[in-house]
Write a structure and sequence with these properties.
two-stranded antiparallel sheet; globular
């Protein structure tokens, strides 16, 4: 007759052990990852918070005088009254990140279905073509758009013929060039995780929706979208978060007239040497990004229950 072991003793994969021993072993396995997060995520975040509440000296040095002036300045308050310049930059950055993510999603769905519909032996070739841009530095890819949008290229000539731009003028710097560069850079971030969900799509549910005379929109929202939500969620987060803080693309393709929060932060840590204000802007960017992710996650849960 078998006897039940005491509650303090467990059998784990044939090994006689205790709950405390399992807990200690689990903590030991988690320790490297926890240390990595503490050193490269939590600790820099705490330093950023600390720097954002101290004062900048006359020559750019840090003076350990606690103040909230940097956040008041970010909110638009100064010696000359209130202005919405910095808030508009934050808002413009959020709009650019949202539009970039939305356009990338709209382009990724047909691209993923196209790749998934190819023969098995050629799918990896198409995926390789999607990954190829990762092999080149972002700065080089952005500079490539200078050549593509130059006055000698067909795109600029067509725009000049249609009267959109003047003869001999390039298609940059402007918002169109910024969005074009942003989408081209971040499109693979949506396509790759979304393709993983599209490839495992249960087509019987799609066929059932079509048999019930569902419209194409209903088929997508009721049968396809819920199944691809895991990959879509990963792609949106991987795109929206870095798009909020990117500064290379708007700096090169947007010029000085199209400043985003990434360019503003880069200026504070560059020639301006206003590190406390730059840290305050970075904290504002982090808060804005987290709010955007929380709103999306809440909306995503609603879509999953549809």
């Amino acid at each position: 007759m078998k006897t039940k072991p005491p509650d303090s003793i467990l059998i784990w994969f044939g090994e006689l052990t205790t709950r405390r021993h399992l807990l200690n072993r689990g903590m030991l396995l988690l320790m490297p990852g926890m240390l990595w997060l503490m050193l490269f995520l939590v600790l820099p975040g705490l330093v950023l918070v600390l720097v954002s509440v101290i004062t900048r000296g006359a020559y750019g040095q840090l003076e350990w005088v606690l103040t909230l002036e940097n956040y008041r300045r970010l909110a638009g308050f100064s010696l000359f009254g209130w202005t919405a310049d910095y808030l508009m930059i934050l808002w413009r950055s959020a709009v650019v990140a949202f539009v970039t993510t939305l356009v990338s999603v709209l382009l990724s769905y047909p691209l993923c279905f196209f790749i998934a519909g190819r023969p098995q032996r050629t799918r990896y070739l198409w995926l390789t073509l999607v990954i190829i841009p990762f092999w080149t530095n972002m700065v080089i890819r952005t500079y490539a758009w200078f050549l593509i949008l130059s006055p000698q290229m067909p795109i600029a000539r067509l725009a000049a013929y249609l009267g959109i731009i003047a003869q001999g003028a390039p298609l940059y710097p402007n918002a169109f060039a910024v969005y074009l560069g942003m989408v081209s850079i971040f499109l693979p971030f949506v396509t790759l995780p979304l393709y993983a969900s599209v490839e495992r799509l249960d087509w019987s549910l799609v066929e059932a929706a079509q048999d019930l005379y569902a419209s194409p929109v209903s088929v997508f929202t009721q049968a396809i979208l819920p199944q691809t939500m895991p990959g879509l969620s990963v792609g949106i987060i991987l795109t929206f978060v870095p798009a909020m803080g990117v500064f290379v693309v708007p700096d090169l393709l947007g010029g000085a007239k199209y400043m985003l929060v990434g360019n503003l932060i880069q200026q504070q840590f560059g020639p301006s040497r206003d590190w406390p204000f730059g840290a305050a802007i970075s904290m504002g960017l982090m808060v804005l990004t987290l709010v955007g992710i929380m709103v999306y996650r809440r909306r995503g849960k609603d879509l999953e229950t549809v």
